Amino acid sequence: MKRPQAQVAVLQAADADDPRRIDEVADEAGLKPETATRAAFELEDDGLLSVTEETVEHYTLTDEGTQYVFESLPEQDLYEAAIDAGADEEPVQMGQVIGASGLEGPAVDIALSNYARKGYGEIDSGEITADPDAKPGQDAEMLALEAVADDQLDEADADALDQLERRGLLEVREETVRSVQLTDEGVAALEAGVEAAETVDQLTAELLTSGEWADVEFTEYNVEADAEDVSHGKEHILRQTANRVKDTLVGMGFQEMEGPHVDAQFWINDCLFMPQDHPARTHWDQFALERPDEIGELPADLVDRVRSAHKEGVGPDGEGYHSPWEEDVARGLDLRGHTTSLSMRHLSGEEIGELEPPKRFFSVEKVYRNDTLDPTHLLEFFQIEGWVMAEDLSVRDLMGTFTEFYEQFGITDLEFKPHYNPYTEPSFELFGTHPETGEVVEVGNSGIFREEVLSPLGVDCDVMAWGLSLERLLMLMYGFEDIRDVHGTLCDLELLRTTEVLH
Ligand SMILES: N[C@@H](Cc1ccccc1)C(=O)O
């Protein structure tokens, strides 16, 4: 019988009595592991070979785990100090024992939580006792750590290994190991004699130019064969979602706005009827530019109208803020803290000329805020800005637009909460439910621009507007719990490589 060469080599290397690991067989047959695996599956299909799979776990110690193997577990140190202090006879002040143990920083908490869990003693109202019968010298987790370090896995206790993984002292990697064994049919085939057929598994330039490709026999594809993982470059999931958001909004009839990342406070704050002494305008919240420190041009008429809105208010019953308004402050340059600056530029006619209702505009652009970093905050994020200009708009229009927009991303449980913005009335915050934690997460802010904003801009119909967070949308879509895993310097490359992208 004639068979492709790789199959013949695998058949000859395989054994009838015992399973052999495919990587050994490949080695002996002089084949790449993936070629041998492919050949093995083909032989299995033809009944000549059986392929079995098992999952093998590989354990490696983390840096912290390695440190404990050389030293000791923090709870062992604590126990030793507790015994030295006489805590096996009567409760001792915890501070005293911790001081004597030499434990510092996070090791203290680690020691305390494991101490109690392992029954080394009790910790109560600042006092510690030690159980004289505890045997920290035979700590199952320490023994398991040592077993892993010495590569003596069969001596390690399974529960202790689990616990070490949970404590972050150990990492477990699973590998699928395949083994092959000749079937009776395989043995018979070998006895009857198998010869290597000249099959070709790669179409080369030579085959094509010589015309030989027409005569050779090609190896069949096996799409189930193992192949090496290749992590190739691809579009970042946040960028992919940003593009999807843009497509969705264009599909809903919106046009895209563009504009500067660094802008005058005038466009970022003053046009929005944010008083110059508003707390959000301080350096605690936004980043200011030192050089250059002010914008070259501002439209003089608009500056006058905005000043007047701030000082005297708008309309016969209007009330301004009665607080100082300085053009110098308005000229100051900041990294925009929201893209509502783009909405102001567009609505004023400054960016693309006067607009007639109805109009819909959006942007999906970066904004910058001096926030404290945490799982839901970065110093910069993408805002999905948008507004609709029309004769008569109501809160229903606003809610309807959000419902329609978020539905396209599978989010159907939006909640609205009344809110306050200096520039919109009424205003609403939007919330969604995190699919993993069940927590209610704020996803955006919105409202209907008030007269004090629209009148200076020269807009005399209604405008409803919003700023939504692209990152929060992503968290709800994918269940990400920490935005720092997704972008920024701490991002989790493995997560980004393996997340299945939604379309
Ligand atoms: N600028 C607001 C969002 C918003 C835009 C327009 C109107 C209302 C709210 C924010 O960043 O939170």
Describe the structure.
- The chain is α+β, with helices and mostly antiparallel strands.
- It has 2 domains: 2-59 and 175-218, Winged helix-like DNA-binding domain superfamily/Winged helix DNA-binding domain (Arc Repressor Mutant, subunit A), CATH 1.10.10; 240-498, Bira Bifunctional Protein, Domain 2 (BirA Bifunctional Protein, domain 2), CATH 3.30.930.
- The chain is built from 21 helices and 19 strands.
- A 7-stranded mixed beta sheet has the order 11-14-15-19-18-17-16, sandwiched between helices. A 3-stranded antiparallel beta sheet has the order 2-7-3. It has a 3-stranded antiparallel beta sheet with strand order 4-6-5.
- A hairpin with a 2-residue loop joins β5 and β6.
- α1 crosses α3 (33-45).
- The radius of gyration is 34 Å and the shape is flat.
- It binds phenylalanine.
- Phenylalanine (PHE) is lined by residues 338, 340, 421, 424, 445-447, 465-467.
What secondary-structure arrangement, pairings included, does this model have?
Elements: E1 2-4, H1 5-13, E2 20-21, H2 22-29, H3 33-45, E3 49-61, H4 63-70, H5 74-84, E4 92-93, H6 94-101, H7 106-117, E5 123-124, E6 127-128, H8 140-149, H9 158-166, E7 170-182, H10 184-192, E8 195-197, E9 199-200, H11 205-210, E10 217-218, H12 237-251, E11 255-256, E12 262-264, H13 265-268, H14 300-312, H15 327-331, E13 333-335, H16 340-347, E14 359-368, E15 380-390, H17 395-407, E16 415-421, E17 424-433, E18 440-449, H18 451-457, E19 462-469, H19 470-478, H20 483-486, H21 493-498
Parallel strand pairs: 1-8, 9-10, 11-14
Antiparallel strand pairs: 2-7, 3-7, 4-6, 5-6, 12-13, 14-15, 15-19, 16-17, 17-18, 18-19
Helix pairs in contact: 1-2, 1-3, 2-3, 4-8, 5-6, 5-7, 8-9, 14-18
The structure holds phenylalanine.
Residues 338, 340, 421, 424, 445-447, 465-467 line the site of phenylalanine.
